[in-house]
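Below: protein 1.
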Amino acid sequence: MNKLTPADLYSLEEYARIRPEFRTKIMEHKKLRRVSIGEHATLYFEDSLLMQYQVQEMLRIERIFEQQGIQDELDVYNPLIPDGMNWKATFMLEYQDVEERRRALADLIGVEKALWVQVEGFPRVHPIANEDLDRETEDKTSSVHFVRFELTPEMVNAAKQGAQISAGIDHPAYQETTVIEQAVRESLVGDLH
């Protein structure tokens, strides 16, 4: 995946004009980037289109139009774009009830290390998690983690040739596995080269 440059972005005026249609496109695209793992865990896989949306929204909200400000936003979001040999995702633990969430986050310390993806026929790949900062204390884990799954060339080739892709969590307090549905699988394979 190519990193975003200023040439990939709309001006503030153009973005204001096309924003409703662009947001609709993004909401549809996000459906192809979401993988639920059981009832309370979700992977939201990032890509260049989603990062373009994030940058455009930040520029709009902050009214940023100067070159350095635009580059600063690109520098923040470009690292979240997969590079062709990996998948990058936001991993969220979602509990509606506040008390249930508090208990679960205390029980789920280390869950990001127990997370995995697997291309059929290959070992599970555990993520490199939270490269930006530590998101866990001795008392609890965070409800949001940023993860990167590094794949081998053989895994990439197998995925591109149609191998099933699964995701799961193997933690004492949360054990779930899901096979990634075809439309989402195709979107994720599009990240690979």
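Below: protein 2.
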Amino acid sequence: MRKDVVVDVSAADRARLERIVGDRNSPQKHVWRARIVLLSAAGVGTAEIMRRTGKSKTCVWRWQERFMQASVGGLLRDKTRPSRIPPLGAQSPSK
């Protein structure tokens, strides 16, 4: 694990993350995000987390960061992204 990353998980957050992992109806993206955080809190290294979850290093780092910034709620929602199509300008129609 990176030296500057310390993932502290409270007892309440740990219980919530374990419920997400154990619930068969949880979306899979929430399950692997929760697993990343639980493994990080257990002191498992990044390479081992990558092996166990099948995710890339940047993906592991992204969800560690998101948890540290926004707790469990940050894992359960995706960030909004800008549209691929730029909005139409306020130009008047030309004839």
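The chain has a mean pLDDT of 88.
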